[in-house]
Task: inverse folding
């Protein structure tokens, strides 16, 4: 087991190198005019250095004056040393900006995730136990509608209904207009109020796949022989489903839930952008559209690490939870 | 999966009439027909199929039926209200000094003081002035019996093209006017006549008129005619809020009058007819869903947008599938180091955060001002290139398990060539799974494309796509007031994606041999 984990981690690091190299190469192949615009902008700021100096400094600081491979090695060295550079868009060190915004995304993602689990798993089980019933059709169709809903459209609909027509919430942003005048409890409530619509969007849009996953696995378990045995023994249906079937359904569920834990940090790019919630998603969207290479590079690397960590956790959990799985 | 799945089913109703060896007693269904039967029995799948059919007809046939082109702009006449003139009623004294005399502002102030306190005399700078009230709001100021200046509130305006009247004439005219006397008077050695409307007539010709209203033109280069002013004064006297006036050029305009009490100004707005894009017009008979921000027919845009969204979906899926099947097939069939290499590439592609990458590329294309058509092509290539690993994994997994099965051993034993073994025996067995995955991913590609277009990084104007139609809601006014701009497009996306997902789901169940229904 330990050897397997070590092997997987080493492989993940190798993959990470390749991914970052590909991203770096793509970013470098983009027109150089980005740096030029940036330098132009920086040099027009009051009291700034002239354009030539800026462009030279920018090029040098990101290794843009070297070839792609050499530049990548410079970036990699800096990255390994914990030097992530300064964001062009926010003019603060990348890591500082990251620290400012990541926790909001985490809280948002966490709440949404817990709600998803609480809603999706019971519904999935109900759908599976009553296969082909009206409830099953409703749940399956509902899950598919959730999957098929374009995030931006659903978010806009929510805005129209709850923010514009009913005026229960603000249209966008994290804090209200009179945030500064509130006491700390009021500030907390204000923020919570502003997070209701984004979290609703996140839950509705992503609940479907977990629901379907639960249903499929539960169906598989319900078709197994030991369930027939349990029923033949004369156990009550409740006991059959919640003691025998559900526990076995938990194996794939725990795997997938564990695997999506790192994803809680990845933020919700579209949702955050639409609601202007200053989390990692919205922040990096702003950075990416203006071509802020240091921040984009950091964000994409971070995302790649999260994906790899998710896969790794899922695989390990699978082996840990299911005693039938033996890893050589 | 490839084994013969002929199913014999007895038709119980006819059992008695048919003899045992009658062929009609036995109903044979091919595997395909069986799948179809199972598919059609799934209510959601049929609904999905109907939804897809509607969307396809809407997008592909609708565009042909629609009487408009996708980039046809519509115009309309609207009335724009522009401030035309501002009118004030003169409430301050104005002064005119006689020829060769001076009556400066300090002296004017002294006069005002005297007038308010009712004094008849005041002195300023060693000059004694006598104040004589000659009429309502009309005073003359004289010193040593000689008139130096007059102070008045009714204003003598010279007629267009006529020289300013001399002081003496003004004096005489105002004296008459302020006492509401009309008729002939003589001044400066000439005969004049003052009529009811305050016109000063010399030799039968109007040379000036007296009025308390000051009319200022608010537009450059516009000369306010006397006739218009008269018309306006009439309206003001009658407290009218609007009036119609036909100008000298024969054009009739509506005017509305608004009184600003604090500034004591009447501003007169002129309604002019302007030819503009028919922007955000409400749904009507000509435009069932109104028009968008560029004055284009919304329904037609939706149809063409659907075409773009669906075509992009199909092309991306084709790219994905070709890459995925070839690479996954090679990987699965040859195994060993080839498999290892390709699977590591798949791992790498899995790890690339696709949405951020596409956003960056989209922003870069914005920066490079890529032509919208070329851009669409790039978008398809990028989406296709980022999407193949899933399919490659699926195909590889299937082929790995299939090639160990007995029928493959049999195929090998029969001496069938490698390519025939792959394409005739292996690939057909993967196809059911492949169709399901492709159907589902069609939906997700449409979602991705519309999200990108919504952010303004995907399909660009002048091409329509469902996503970039919704893009308009970034304008808060559109979001609140013009539902017909974005809600239909959103439902188009929802219905198509849902259709693909329902059908994919139904196909998955129908292809599954374990399904007993």
Result:
């Amino acid at each position: 087991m330990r050897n397997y984990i070590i092997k997987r981690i080493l492989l993940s690091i190798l993959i990470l190198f390749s991914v970052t190299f590909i991203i770096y190469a793509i970013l470098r192949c983009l027109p150089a005019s980005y740096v030029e615009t940036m330098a132009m902008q920086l040099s027009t700021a009051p009291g700034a250095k002239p354009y030539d100096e800026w462009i030279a400094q920018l090029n040098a600081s990101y290794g843009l004056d070297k070839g792609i491979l050499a530049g990548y090695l410079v970036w990699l060295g800096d990255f390994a040393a914990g030097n992530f550079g300064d964001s062009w868009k926010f003019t603060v060190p990348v890591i500082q900006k990251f620290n400012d915004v990541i926790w909001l995304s985490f809280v948002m993602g966490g709440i949404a995730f817990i709600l998803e689990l609480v809603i999706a798993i019971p519904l999935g089980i109900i759908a599976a136990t009553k296969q082909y019933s009206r409830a099953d059709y409703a749940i399956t169709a509902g899950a598919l509608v959730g999957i098929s809903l374009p995030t931006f459209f659903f978010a806009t609909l929510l805005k129209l209904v709850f923010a514009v027509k009913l005026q229960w919430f603000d249209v966008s942003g994290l804090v209200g207009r009179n945030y500064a005048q509130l006491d700390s409890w009021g500030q907390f409530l204000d923020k919570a109020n502003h997070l209701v619509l984004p979290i609703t969007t996140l839950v509705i849009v992503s609940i479907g796949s977990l629901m379907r996953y639960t249903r499929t696995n539960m169906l598989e378990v319900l078709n197994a022989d030991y369930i027939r045995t349990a029923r033949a023994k004369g156990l009550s249906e409740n006991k059959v489903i919640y003691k025998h079937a559900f526990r076995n359904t938990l194996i794939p569920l725990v795997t997938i839930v564990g695997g999506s834990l790192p994803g809680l940090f990845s933020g919700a790019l579209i949702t955050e952008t639409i609601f202007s919630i200053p989390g990692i998603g919205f922040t990096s969207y702003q950075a990416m559209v203006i071509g802020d290479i240091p921040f984009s590079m950091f964000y994409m690397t971070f995302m790649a690490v999260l994906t790899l960590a998710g896969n790794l956790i899922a695989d390990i959990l699978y082996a840990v939870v299911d005693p039938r799985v033996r890893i050589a | 999966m490839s084994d013969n799945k002929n199913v014999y089913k007895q038709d119980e109703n006819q059992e008695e009439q048919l003899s045992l060896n009658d062929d009609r007693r036995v109903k044979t269904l091919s595997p395909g027909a069986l799948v179809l039967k199972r598919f059609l029995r799934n209510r959601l799948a049929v609904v999905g199929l109907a939804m897809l059919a509607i969307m396809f007809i809407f997008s592909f046939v609708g565009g042909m039926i629609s009487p408009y082109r996708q980039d046809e702009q519509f115009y309309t006449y609207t009335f724009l209200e522009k401030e035309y003139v501002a009118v004030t009623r003169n409430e301050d004294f104005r002064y005119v000094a006689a020829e060769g005399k001076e009556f400066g502002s300090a002296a004017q102030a002294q006069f005002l003081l005297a007038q308010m306190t009712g004094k008849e005399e005041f002195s300023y700078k060693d000059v004694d002035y006598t104040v004589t009230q000659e009429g309502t709001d009309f005073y003359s100021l004289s010193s040593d019996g000689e008139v130096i200046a007059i102070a008045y509130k009714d204003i003598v305006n010279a007629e267009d093209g006529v020289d300013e009247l001399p002081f003496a004439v003004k004096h005489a005219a105002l004296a008459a006017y302020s006492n509401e006397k009309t008729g002939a008077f003589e001044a400066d050695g000439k005969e004049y006549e003052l009529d009811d409307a305050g016109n000063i007539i010399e030799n039968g010709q109007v040379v000036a008129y007296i009025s308390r209203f000051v009319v200022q033109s608010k537009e450059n280069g516009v000369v306010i005619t006397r006739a218009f002013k008269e018309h306006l004064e009439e309206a003001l006297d009658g407290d009218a809020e609007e009036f119609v006036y036909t100008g000298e050029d024969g054009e009739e305009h509506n005017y509305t009058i608004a009184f600003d009490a604090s500034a004591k100004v009447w501003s007169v707005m002129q309604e002019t007819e302007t030819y503009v894009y028919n922007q955000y017009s409400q749904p009507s008979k000509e435009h069932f869903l109104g028009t968008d921000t560029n004055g284009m027919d919304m329904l037609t845009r939706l149809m063409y947008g659907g075409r773009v969204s669906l075509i992009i979906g199909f092309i991306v899926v084709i790219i994905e599938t070709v890459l995925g099947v070839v690479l996954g097939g090679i990987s699965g069939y040859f195994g060993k180091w080839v498999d290892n290499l390709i699977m590591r590439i798949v791992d790498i592609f899995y790890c690339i955060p696709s949405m951020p990458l596409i956003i960056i590329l989209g922003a870069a294309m914005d920066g490079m001002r890529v032509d919208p058509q070329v851009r669409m092509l790039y978008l398809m290539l990028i989406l296709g290139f980022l999407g193949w690993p899933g399919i490659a994994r699926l195909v590889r997994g299937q082929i790995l398990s299939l090639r160990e099965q007995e029928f493959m051993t049999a195929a090998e034993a029969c001496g069938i060539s490698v390519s025939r073994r792959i394409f005739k025996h292996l690939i057909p067995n993967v196809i059911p799974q492949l169709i399901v995955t492709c159907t589902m991913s069609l939906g997700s590609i449409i979602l991705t494309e519309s999200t990108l277009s919504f952010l303004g990084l995907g399909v660009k104007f002048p091409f329509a796509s469902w996503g970039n139609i919704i893009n308009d809601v970034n304008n808060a006014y559109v979001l609140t007031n013009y539902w017909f701009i974005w809600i239909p497009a959103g439902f188009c996306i929802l219905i198509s994606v849902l259709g693909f997902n329902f059908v994919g789901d139904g196909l998955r169940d129908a292809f599954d041999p374990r399904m007993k229904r």
User: Anything to note?
Assistant: Residues 2-80 of chain A form one domain. The mean pLDDT of chain A is 85. The two ends of chain A are 7 Å apart (CA to CA). DSSP finds 13 helices and no strands in chain A.
